[in-house]
Amino acid sequence: MKSSCRAARSVRKRISMAAETRKQISNKGNYITSGPLTAAEIKRIRALFRMTQRELAELLNVSVKTVEHWEISDKPVTGAPAALMRLYFSDPRLIERMQIPKREDGYTLRLYYKFLDEVCTVIDVDERMQRVKIKNYALGLQFRAFGRNESPTFEEYEAFLESRCFPRTRDKMKLHLQELGLPFYDPLMIIEKTKGRMAEDDFSLEIER
Length: 209
Fold this sequence. Notes:
- The chain is built from 9 helices and 6 strands, in the order αββαααααβββαααβ.
- By secondary structure, it is an alpha+beta fold.
- It is elongated and about 65 Å long.
């Protein structure tokens, strides 16, 4: 009962913060813009979401020292950082969507599928049990590793890897493998060498073990 009451109070706090955030939004000009944030407001937001200064810095792509300065400065934070903070904290689902998932037991391989430098899909793989879990960050289906498929099978994962390599039937394949220093055709090994880059698009794969 106590835990449910605490959860309800937490929800009410977040709703109150979202309402307060909306009050500080200006509708002048052609776009909805956000007002400045004071040091006290930044501390309050961070405490509400139980974030460390480092976590907030990572979320906003700034240094920890920058966050420390914001929280002791008499000068309010304006511009893009303030707008991002109000956007994220007025809708906590955005923060959850941006979080990188923790790897579950057995999933020893992680791949980041990127368009240019933007992560579109995180792929976790348990090679021993042949299991695959993904999290999509791109909204457009054309940017996702498996399109609208949210639960790819291991076979679909293998087919995806091969789609990011030169085909098995390519002319002079043995010569290409020799150039890469590989003894045989293995899509994952090829991607470790080529980053899964193809001449016809701007996608790539980063492998993390």
